[in-house]
Design brief:
The chain is α+β, with helices and mostly antiparallel strands. 64% of the residues lie in helices and 14% in strands. The relative contact order is 0.08.
Length: 378
């Protein structure tokens, strides 16, 4: 085909496609609202086969009262083939309205679980207060600060189009600083752990970016990523979101490792007398190796537990193990585990080295700042 014929063909296709493009532009999404509702009665029950499968699914015909929103007080009836409910159960009702002809559709979005979550949270806080005392409550305050940074800095930053990697590194650093000083106070020990953690996060972030790039991961490792792509009209960098998730997920075990190493150095310096810094470093590193063994196992098992349904799919797949592991869904989880473990391993020698040179030998390194304040009042 010559160039003139190609241009003519493309022009013809464009003209033919124009009406369909115009029709697509007129497409409007259904108007969706979510309101709290309560089951008045289960009118009927049944069972049907999911089309294209041999799986049977239960269904029920419900009558429910809307408890919130502009339809508050109204009674609606609909078929529910999602989570089966019983009389008196509360749930979130999804109400869809077609903008073209006003057709309405009702369905169960999710059972109401907030009351269970609230009771569980209160039990957790009470146990932390009883057995953790003041230190435990400071830990809860630190957790609250971390969640505020995630919901009011990290998520809006990514949604606004900023680089998810840079935003994640920045927020992770803030979480480290705020959480560490709130929980453990302004001491040299805490500062050593903070510097070690921030350095590890930066190095791990660079390593994660490089690995994700050469592994050609697209970020479409879950249904949520696909939904996010459409909801944001393609403006959010999913690869960056993947990297940011790896860094934020690393913070929990990284925090435990770094604080543990800094405290180990502190205790060795406190009782070591004239022991050299090199000897303190080697002995603290010995403690760190034991910690690494436990935490790496914890990190890997935690990721496997969170992805258990994914691993169960292996039992029902006819593809080879190599093909399945090579797939993005599995490859993404493996990258999460290994990058997180690398960061965890690096945190031990880095934090230990910083602590050895930052914490003063002899005396009481943890009370350095408090001691100065006390002496000023004498």
């Amino acid at each position: 085909m010559n160039i003139k014929s190609f241009v003519f063909s493309m022009g013809t296709l464009a003209l033919l496609a124009a009406p369909f493009v115009g029709h697509a532009q007129e497409f409007q999404r259904d108007i969706e609202t979510l309101e709290k509702a309560r089951v008045i009665s289960v009118i009927d029950r049944g069972e049907h086969q999911i089309p294209g499968t041999e799986v049977m699914s239960e269904s029920q015909y419900l009558s429910a009262e809307v408890l919130t929103g502009i339809q508050k007080g109204e009674i609606v009836s609909f078929t529910n083939d999602f989570t089966q409910l019983k009389e008196g159960d509360q749930f979130y009702l999804r109400h869809l309205v077609s903008p073209s002809d006003g057709t309405e559709f009702y369905s169960v979005a999710d059972p109401y679980r907030l009351n269970v979550l609230l009771v569980l949270t209160l039990i957790f806080v009470a146990l932390v207060f009883v057995f953790g005392g003041l230190q435990g409550m400071r830990g809860l305050l630190s957790l609250a600060g971390s969640l505020l940074l995630i919901f009011y800095v990290l998520l809006p930053g990514i949604s606004s189009g900023f680089s998810p990697v840079l935003v994640a590194i920045g927020v992770a650093s803030l979480i480290i600083i705020v959480g560490s000083y709130i929980t453990h106070g302004f001491t040299r020990t805490t500062t050593a752990a903070v510097i070690g953690m921030i350095g590890t996060v930066i190095v791990t972030g660079i390593a994660a970016w490089y690995v994700v790039d050469i592994a050609a991961l697209s970020g479409y490792g879950s249904d949520e990523s696909v939904y996010l792509r459409f909801q944001s009209d393609g403006t959010i960098d999913l690869v960056g979101v993947l990297l940011g998730g790896v860094l934020i997920g690393l913070l929990g075990v990284l925090y435990d490792s770094a604080i543990g190493q800094a405290v180990a150095v502190e205790e060795l310096l406190r009782i070591g007398g004239n022991v050299s810094r090199k000897e303190v470093y080697m002995r603290a590193l010995r403690i760190g190796r034991e910690h690494i063994g436990a935490l790496v196992n914890t990190l890997a098992i935690a990721y496997v537990g969170a992805s258990l349904p994914l691993f169960l799919l292996l039992q029902y797949s006819s593809a080879s193990a190599g093909y399945i592991v090579n797939g993005e869904v599995f490859a993404t989880e493996i990258v999460r585990i290994l990058i997180g473990s690398i960061g965890l391993v690096l945190a031990v020698p880095v934090t230990t080295l910083i602590a050895v040179y930052l914490i003063r030998p002899g005396g009481n390194p943890r009370d350095t700042i408090q001691a100065h304040k006390h002496n000023n009042h004498v």
